Amino acid sequence: MRADTIVAIATAPGRGAIAIVRLSGAQALAIARRIATPFPDEAREATLATIHAADDPAEVIDHGLVTRFDGPRSYTGEDVVELALHGGTVVGMLAVAACVTAGARPALAGEFTERAVLHGKLDLVQAEAVADLIDARSRASHRAAVHQLDGALSRRLVAMREALLQVDALIAYDIDFPEEDDGAIPRARVIAGCDAAIAQVDRLLATLPAAALGREGALVVLAGPPNAGKSSLLNALVGEARVLVSEIPGTTRDAVEMLVDDSPYPLRLVDTAGLRESGDTLERLGIEVSERYVTQAHVVLACAEDEASLSLTVAAVGAMTAGVVVPVLTKADTLPASPQRHGEQLRATEEGLEGFLGAELVRVSAVSGEGLDTLRAAIREAVMSRVATPDDDTPVVTRARHEAALRRAREELAAFRAEWALGHLPAPVAATHLRGAVTALEELIGAVDVEDVLDRVFRTFCVGK
Fold first, then answer.
1. Per CATH, which fold does 128-207+397-445 belong to?
2. What does residue 425 show for φ and ψ, rounded to 5 degrees?
3. Which of 204-208, 221-225, 339-343, 459-463 has the lowest mean pLDDT?
4. How far is Cα 74 from Cα 1, in angstroms, rounded to an integer?
5. Three-state secondary-structure class, residue 220
6. pLDDT (tens digit, 9 = 90+) per residue, 263-297?
7. Top-level CATH class of 221-386?
8. Is 178 within 8 Å of 184 (Cβ atoms)?
9. Are 413 and 170 in contact, with CB atoms under 8 Å apart?
10. How many CA atoms lie within 13 A of 281 on its CB side?
11. DSSP readout, 404-420?
12. Is residue 30 classed exposed, middle or buried when 0-12, 13-18 and 19+ CB atoms within 10 A define those classes?
């Protein structure tokens, strides 16, 4: 099937300005010539053409632009033709049908990118970055995908593989020529190379929490007593009214979650039911949901409308969470003027607040906007204190497949180091662990053609990509 010429609509289905129909394969140029008149003579030059039925030029489908990309200088490495047509449900479908009549086969999900991998245009890690880029819901996940698509992770993995092959070569030389030159290879030299590789793997695995935050967002929970202004504060942070606000205590009965893109990580803002003792069964269920969210939170905004209530709220949520607690005095527009200028953070000095998790008291007003920027800065600082942000030189490990392969490589390296240091096993036997680590890295970047790995990766892609 990989020798067939494939066709698919490469843009989102439905009504739109443009629909792109993509052909790839050995017969792409010949098939496109049968349905497009005139057909471009030169590669990479868009030509206005009439798109028609394969067997009847009089049956016009559309007028659009035709661009050819001759292999290997194309996305897939094969001959590729792209038809830029008017968007809509019918036009693209008719053009695909005409290509199928002329000899093409409908593409499977991810088949264009799979062919790019098989022809060496991308490695498997970069191919996955294409899907991550399409699925990105935040700037953090977008940055990670672009970095990975640029080859940052691939280059790191290739360098690690080469370093391990050098260590394997040392062992092989020692086995084959034990008396040559200066005698046996010092064990410390091999161990040093192994330790360097383990450290590299550990640095990559250490990016997993940051990758999870970039993908899912940091969980920021607004907690406090009923009528403390939590819903109004969430609406103010989001920038629109997404939660029902009422002066009646207990209006919020369930958790309301909103994803807000922020830097360096997106935020999952959660408004929760007011924390209090209640005999109402439905309200009690909502409070239990609130408590579960507080338990799981990266950051808890402990909200209250006066300092006495805030002290009790901070103590209550602090006993429930391992996350950072930020004391927030809401409804600042109704409080007496602060001795410090508006927007400044006030060091919490009231009993129960001073020194609590190093947090600072923030006064905000959802009505006037006072303190919102200060609160946003406090949230960012709290999130970054929980999860280290990788430096620009360290690629982020974004997928479970990457994690599994890296952990397998690390286990093999650790086993090899232990055996090599003890010297209980012959060198050829100990070296099998080293080669196991190399194989794990090769499967990760696709240097080894493993059919089931390719199937798992590209099954999640959209058709046309």
1. Four Helix Bundle (Hemerythrin (Met), subunit A) (1.20.120)
2. -105, 150
3. 339-343
4. 20
5. strand
6. 888 888 988 877 765 555 555 666 777 788 888 88
7. alpha beta
8. yes
9. no
10. 0
11. HHHHHHHHHHHHHHHHH
12. middle
